[in-house]
């Protein structure tokens, strides 16, 4: 897969990073995560939510939108697209987009395949549906690890300018809540500031244009 087909990280020398949160289930951790971000002064982040979660928890989905965070699609159901045919993928993407729009009023274009699982066929199909596929270059494994220090160590040393960090805001993974303040504090100490995925992309375009103008 070409790096232009899937966004893993944005090339920039600026110390900006995108915190991204996947949500597929629950309400306790998602609500608490929103409160934590506010408490720690993080006003820019991108949430990838499933359509079925948006249908089940429309009030929380709207709260994410009203707080000014960016919303992308995580598909309708959290299933591996690699094992499904193209017609199924199209139906899922459209169903997710409709559910997220009904809950938030946002027509999503950013798309993160469930589990980050994809292959060239899936990528090609998603692109025909005008979806911009967003992966990550830093994976916290916060859904799997219970040792908070390990989660933090998987993130902080590996973040570079333009990194996209994978985190979760799902029940019952309370360890994500404990790890977030430590990650935010340590990255700020290194001079990083937080932006959305779309802001990273705009920055990349501006930097490319500036370099082209110098030639």
User: What is the count of distinct domains?
Assistant: 1
State the CATH architecture. Answer: Alpha-Beta Barrel
Q: What oligomerization state is this entry in?
A: single chain
Query: In percent, how much strand structure appears in the residues?
Result: 15-25%
Shape assignment: globular
CATH topology-level fold name? TIM Barrel
> Biggest β-sheet: count, sense, barrel?
6 strands, parallel
Integer average pLDDT: 94
What's the helix count?
A: 8
The top level CATH class name: Alpha Beta
Strand elements, count? 9
Structural class: alpha/beta
CATH superfamily: Glycoside hydrolase/deacetylase
Helix percentage: 40-55%
Unreliable residue stretches? none
Distance between the termini: 30 Å
Nearest-angstrom radius of gyration? 17 Å
H-E order? EEHEHHEHEHEEHEHEH
Describe the structure in your own words.
By secondary structure, the chain is of the alpha/beta class. It has a single domain, classed as TIM Barrel, CATH 3.20.20. The protein is 44% helix and 15% strand. The protein has eight helices and nine strands. The strands form two sheets. Strands 2, 3, 4, 7, 8 and 9 form a six-stranded parallel β-sheet that branches. α1 runs parallel beside α7, α3 crosses α4 and α6 packs across α7. The mean pLDDT is 94.
In short:
The chain has 215 residues and is of the alpha/beta class. Helix content is 44%, strand content 15%.
